[in-house]
Please model this.
Amino acid sequence: MALLTISGDPASRWEEVAQAVAQLMHFELVTETRLAQWMIEEFGETPLPARAWAPAAVAVLARLAREHPLLIALDGAEHLFRPAPWVLRTRITTSDAHRAGKLMLDLRLEKSEAQSRLRELDAERKRFRKARFKGASSASAEAASFDLTLSLAHIDAAEAAEVLAAAAARRLDQQGLLSPNAADEIEFEMRLELAKRGIVPAGRARVTRASFGHPSEEMFANLLDFYRIQWEYEPRSFPLQWDKDGGVTEAFTPDFYLPELDLYVEVTTMKQSLVTRKNRKVKMLRAIYPHINIQVFYQKDFQDLVFKYGLKMVHS
Amino acid sequence: MTPAPDNIERILFTEEQVSARIAEVAVEISEKYRGRDLKLIAVLKGSVFFLTALARALTIPVKIDFLAISSFGGPSQGPTPGLVRIAKDLDEPIHDEDVLLVEDIVDTGFTTRYLLQTLAGRGPRSLGICTLLDRSVRRIVQVPIDFRCFEIPDRFVVGCGLDHRQLYRNLGYIAVLDPERG
Model:
């Protein structure tokens, strides 16, 4: 088994479970943003036609899964692969009351507002899945698309993660990684599908680990992992200044993006000159992109962690 | 007044100030929850001192319960930080109860968010937060705080349940600890 898919209802905390399983199993976590990056590396910047998205994604994932066990945490990920010994497709669900409760906490909404937002999210999800995975939106098709469904109504995300990790470990133990022959077969099938649309995978997408610029960034990543908060390292740059021809002369790349909280986090270092420069960039980013949420985590906060628990900085 | 250890830089709030402010917040809580069954939930170990002082100042009947979670970089975590988890669960269910989570300090919001999510999943009638200290300057994850006793600056503080390597929890006041002298 080399592929584990996890998806779930909006606000069911499936992303948190996925993050925890990836950490427990040492699987590569494939989020929507990470896959989008691989798709750009593989097929270029021009968006693919809607119908080509799924075979293109499968072609990339099957190739990478030969060498790296992947945990694919995408809405609708279960529809990417047919049932097979090398894939375990799982779903996280919970009661509407719990889902509304999560929105109340995360978005600071009143109960009625949260219920209304939940209905909107469910409708958005339905539209999204219908557009991306043709004919996959009926309830019976959805139920048949999973090997394992777990409800968080009476167990917490950590317990769910342990159950899924145990199931994945058992499959991995029995099946091993995706065999080269099976991967070739899937890739061939998908390339054929893509060739009909004149699309050829470039074979450039690679699994790269976050290479942290500073030990404090690695510790912050550990802190997020500890709290099962999904993160992406430097996923986006924001232009801050342009020359008269419209060329970007200054940009800012926040260290982390937390998709579940829709929040960017910049981790500062000890050097005051760098702190001042970063603060200036954060201020500019807030002015130019007022809809972007960004917080600064200061080196001093790490000092306190180190001070309180006697931790050692992990050098990258 | 409890004598100050050598590595205390300064006292932020005296015992008298802490007691007076807890009494004020207790009045607000008593008014809000009058006629309802309130359960105070404290997170071990830091919140115990605040829970005790708060409960004694409340003028409504309350139940109490405790939970504990693993700490980041704690001794059981090994070389990697592991995952946050409940180390000691509540003794009783909280379904359909009015619950007030009692915290010693809220700073980044990571721990509080985890606790709120965990407790919200158990179906309480209502769920609020009361914190002794709010270091909002460090907030990364926004959490809804219903009652706060003190907003504090971005300094390392001890006392009233807050520790440095398990020490100083028993100080009756809130003090800034000097890392250089620690």
Summary: Chain B is about 20% helix and 30% strand.
